Structure prediction request, 347 residues.
Amino acid sequence: MSDHRPILGITMGDPASIGPEVAAKAFTNRVIYDACRPLVVGDARVIEDAVRFCNLDLKVNAVKSVNNAEFVFGQIDVYDLENVVLEDLKKGEMSARAGDVAFQTVVATINLAMKGEIDGTVTGPINKESIHMAGHQFSGHTEIYAHYTGTKKYAMLLVENDLRVIHVSTHVSLRQACDLVKKDRILDTIELMHQACVQLGIRDPRIAVSGLNPHAGDGGIFGWEEKEEIIPAIEEAVSRGYNVTGPIPGDTLFPKAIGGRYDGCVVMYHDQGHIPFKMVGFTWDDKAQKMNSVKGVNITLGLPIIRTSVDHGTAMEIAGKGIASPDAMLLAIEYAVKLFENKVQSY
Prediction:
């Protein structure tokens, strides 16, 4: 009898970060085995070390082929790249070596998905500075995936419960972000948002588009981008049959979206979307000096393969302490399964 659960490649992220820890902790949840066949991609000794300092009741099974993974609860199958000298690894420190390991792990996972050996990918956090120190000039996971899959039209989607946010631009300066507010780019982003909502089971998604300027330009008083680029993109999207509203000032859009008025939000730049998104999913405990909750999933749209990710950073300051939350990793796995199932049903 064939096993219909998807095989998901889960990267350990930066080996000096909380990435290995949140990956290992996710495997203590039996529910993920009901939904998928999880496989960590990385270095088996790093995962063994995470199991040790987190005091987890788990075994590690290092494999060199996906076919050798056993996918049984109580055991972490690791597609072992053997690319870390554990004695040289300093937790919580950025380095070219850690950056290169993180980068090579992501590329290996992409290759497994492109070859059809795994059904989807879930990524742990990477440190952009460490990756740059290693000589890999990518601004983030999204751009690495786009490059190695040959994808031209792509975007980052953030999901936390009913809040879904997509960006016209992400990892660029604010000055560059303003220059990227162009009709065609906005229209592509609206279309990606619509497709993503459909893939997540929303039949006729209601999409809201933010303005760039305060008060969405206020009729041209505070800027010209709304009149010349954003409104024409919205009008074109409506003419194509999409249910789109805007431009709406960001400070008005998000209270309504969080309240359920919209199924998807198209924003113009990184922080315009990330700040309200993290206000919903992240909870800081000042007394304990740690995040009590770190929820939210990052999905890359437009790719030929499935990619979901935690939407938190490497948290180097707590790496190796065993206190990192696996909440976002569990959600990322859940959404990868959901995307796989909807993809299969659409065939």
